[in-house]
Amino acid sequence: MFIKLFSMTCVRKCYSMKYLPLILRRHAAKKSYNQRYKDFIEPAFPKPPFNFICQIGDPVLRQRCDSVDESLINTSGFQDLIAHLWKVHEAFSLAGLAAPQIGLPLQLVVIGFTETQCKESNAKFVSPVLRRVLINPVYKVLDYKDKITDSEGCASVCGYSAQVSRYSHIQVEALNENGIKESWKASGFEARTIQHEVDHLQGVVFVDKMEAKSLECSYWQHVKLHEGKGYIEFGPGKRGFLAKLYRKLGL
Ligand SMILES: [Zn+2]
Q1: pTM of the entire predicted model
Q2: 225 or 251: which carries more pLDDT confidence?
Q3: Helix (H, G, I), strand (E, B) or coil at 112
Q4: Per-residue pLDDT tens over the stretch 34-85
Q5: How many Å apart are CA 123 and CA 95, to the nearest integer?
Q6: What residues are labeled active site?
Q7: How far is the CA of 75 from the centre of ligand 1 (A)?
Q8: What residue spans of the chain are helical by DSSP H?
Q9: SS3 for 70?
Q10: Which NCBIfam families match (predicted)?
Q11: What whole-number distance in Å separates Cα of residue 97 and Cα of residue 238?
Q12: Helix (H, G, I), strand (E, B), or coil: what is residue 154?
């Protein structure tokens, strides 16, 4: 295994060096040599907030998020950020989305899940979740003995899911999109979604809490049926479509 990895690295380096002059020449008219070389060695990442979702391994998913300054909530910039979160949440058809998932380590989350999304879900214990913005959210567990284990996935661990145990009933406190403090009891799928999203704000991802042996690739049947052919879609749209279809067909 070590030899294979080593030789692959060498091949990749040779490939890069072969095409380096061509790539640099293509941009010759626009940038200085130093800038072109730097761009090639260290490609510039886009700036957040992103239209896509950061994937596990990205350091932004592993840091504790800063709390939101309450005086900023009613500014147009912050309201635009909330609108942007909703846009990505809808594009990816999610139950919840936390700001670090689009590159911003801030204590900001949106949740919401419709009846239709429940019908399409692979999880057993799903129910609609009221649309809410949660700023600087905290929760208290109402009964430490009452937990439910169910299938859970995350747009930041695209293509995989696992069984995760979560508390059934929690008391949540957060500021809403207008900066007003709200407190409510959440249970079942809403409680699961909030616990999952609040974990993101602490740099915790569901794989840290899953039952390790239950981890599965949502496309494993597809890979088997098509003898290794297939790919994981990281963009919005038909994410998980094949997995749902194969489950429906009982494959
Ligand atoms: Zn997640």
Answers
A1: 0.80
A2: 225
A3: strand
A4: 777 776 777 678 899 999 999 999 999 999 999 999 999 999 999 999 999 9
A5: 12
A6: 197
A7: 27
A8: 2-26, 33-41, 76-91, 115-120, 188-201, 220-225, 241-248
A9: helix
A10: PRK00150.1-3
A11: 18
A12: coil
